[in-house]
Design a protein that fits this description.
Strand 2 (10-17), helix 1 (20-32) and strand 3 (38-45) form a beta-alpha-beta unit. The chain has one helix at residues 20-32; strands at residues 2-7, 10-17, 38-45. It contains 1 helix and 3 strands; from the N terminus they run E-E-H-E. With 50 residues, it is an alpha+beta fold. 26% of the residues lie in helices and 44% in strands.
């Protein structure tokens, strides 16, 4: 799950994803939103432990 909060051109991303690729998708989506001037990435990767 990834959360996004917009505040005056700043997007804050947070939550956990399963892979680096999922994190990249979230980052690109945030930057592609209109009016984004800054992005704070606090997404963590929840690596599987076997």
């Amino acid at each position: 799950m990834v959360r996004r909060v917009d505040r005056g051109g700043t997007v804050k991303l947070g939550g956990k994803v399963k892979t680096w690729a999922e994190r990249g998708v979230a980052e690109r989506a945030a930057w592609s939103a209109p009016g984004v001037a800054r992005a704070e990435d606090n997404i963590t990767i929840a690596l599987c432990q076997e």
